Amino acid sequence: ESDTASEISFQFNRHKKSPSTGSHSSDMASVSSVSGSVLSVYSGDFGSVDAQGMVEFALDYDEKNREFQVHVSQCKDLAVVDEKKGRSDPYVKTYLLPDKARMGKRKTSVKKRTVNPIYNEVLRYKIEKMVLLIQKLNLSVWHNDPLGRNSFLGEIEIDLASWDWSNRKLNWYPLKPRSLSAVNGVDHRGVMSLSIKYVPPGSLGKRPKNPPSGEVHIWVKDVKDLLQLRPSGVDSFVKCYVLPDTSKKSYQKTRVIKRDTNPVFNHTIVYDGFHTEDLKDACVELTVWDHEKLTNHFLGGIRLGLGTGLSYGISVDWMDSTQEEVAFWQEMMLAANEWIEGLLPLRSL
């Protein structure tokens, strides 16, 4: 792809507010869908009870095999999820943060009908020590529900840079409620510099209907302070969708900038097919990825929209813009034909 303007014709499916007709089913599926790669990584667990109890575990790094090991021993005095049956079916899950996408989760087996489960399992990560030391370990306990609505029972988060690696003994740690960073997605992933502009239909030049439909222009300038996932640096690029459309028509990306945690993209994308009323129901999703041969790893993103939770009258997860993102989008809506500049923090979406 070049760094000059990329123009994409974009047509929205406009949905009636009333779901009374049977023909809406396929449209609703397309509207409520989100970029699959992001959804698969960040789809969450659901219910929760008050955190209580303790977990016993030990940490070690195997220098020979370059392997980080989490020895999960047991838990005690966990919260009861099903009070009628006095039952919890707990398991332990770990992530290396902030990089959920790259390392993936590890989890123990499920122990049924107990608030004092014994695991004696080792969760392993193949990772270089220098990369490990810029991570945090998030260890959480969950109740396993057959329908997938798992309940959070408590967690502990450890900064591995300050961990005493000579301590290989099993120790007890109190389980805590979900951290504010986990609840609000507040973790530093970098900052994107960009400008956006809305060109209403027929607002350019003397000719009528120029442009024939509205256009949204997105100028991705640069990103600063990206996460460095490996010693060689980050090979990053930006993907763009205009939700609810996740088709190839909507998809655009920048070129890859290699070995740079402060990449400059200077890439402009133009989407036409916008009517002014679409700006209330659409959302521009910009995500930054680390490129590798086998797979790309999610680094962070932003969603520009009104953050109402609704798109064409349908409830959707992705209409979740932060206050900063909403203010940026609203400023564009109020200032037709003007570039609006912004500096927005990347988040985990």
Radius of gyration equals 23 Å
The level of helicity is 10-25%
According to CATH, the homologous superfamily of the largest domain is C2 domain
- Fold-level CATH name of the largest domain: Immunoglobulin-like
Secondary-structure class: mainly beta
Write the H/E string, N to C. EHHEEEHEEHEEEHEEEEEEEEEHE
What profile does the largest beta sheet have?
A: 5 strands, mixed
Identify the strand order in the major beta sheet: 1-14-11-10-19
Flag low-confidence runs. Answer: 1-7, 13-46, 180-186
Q: Main traits of this protein?
A:
6 helices; Immunoglobulin-like; 4-stranded antiparallel β-sheet; exocytosis; mainly beta; elongated; 5-stranded mixed β-sheet; neurexin family protein binding; disordered N terminus; 2 domains; 19 strands; 349 residues
Structure explained in plain terms:
The chain has 349 residues and is mostly beta strands. Helix content is 12%, strand content 38%. It has helices spanning 24-32, 36-42, 100-103, 129-132, 180-184, 323-334; strands at residues 6-9, 54-62, 67-76, 90-97, 106-107, 118-126, 136-143, 151-159, 171-174, 191-199, 214-224, 236-243, 252-253, 264-274, 283-291, 296-304, 310-311, 314-315, 340-345. It has a five-stranded mixed beta sheet with strand order 1-14-11-10-19, with helices on one face. It has a four-stranded antiparallel beta sheet with strand order 6-3-2-9, with no helix packed on it. Strands 5-4-7-8 form a four-stranded antiparallel beta sheet, with no helix packed on it. 33% of the residues are buried. The model is unreliable at 1-7, 13-46 and 180-186 (pLDDT under 50).
